[in-house]
Amino acid sequence: MRKIGALVVGGLLATAMTALPSAAATQQALTGKVINTAGLVTFEATLIGGTADGEAYRIDFNKRPVAWYAYGATIHPGCWLEGPKVTGPYGSTTAWISLAGGYSSSGSGTQTVLTDAWVNTGDDIRKQVKKCAKSGQ
Hints:
The protein is mostly beta strands. The protein has one domain (29-127). The chain is built from 1 helix and 11 strands. Strands 4, 5, 6, 8, 9 and 10 form a 6-stranded antiparallel beta sheet that branches. Strands 7-3-11 form a 3-stranded antiparallel beta sheet, with no helix packed on it. The relative contact order is 0.21. Mean pLDDT is 75; it is low at 1-27 and 103-107.
């Protein structure tokens, strides 16, 4: 509780109190902006197994892209995963952003992803959201 004001009423000190919102309530969901002037497509990443440092995914570029986002479009990262290296305006990265933050309804072990190389979230996505994990982890 935080004291935001005081009032003397009939010789007694009355204070007005208000609860401050919790850190979780005030934390904004992370957003990013597509910075590739040609737009950006999302792909399906398929879980292919586990490794010592986490899950391993395959991104099949031969399949039709899941969706297309225009330059300046807002995206909402849920988590990130390792994928093929892509180079963008801020350098090269192997981080891919999962938009759902988990597995998509298109199949067990799949996520809709796009490269962090062409999305401006203000910093490396690996520093801002959790790494993607299997359901229930």
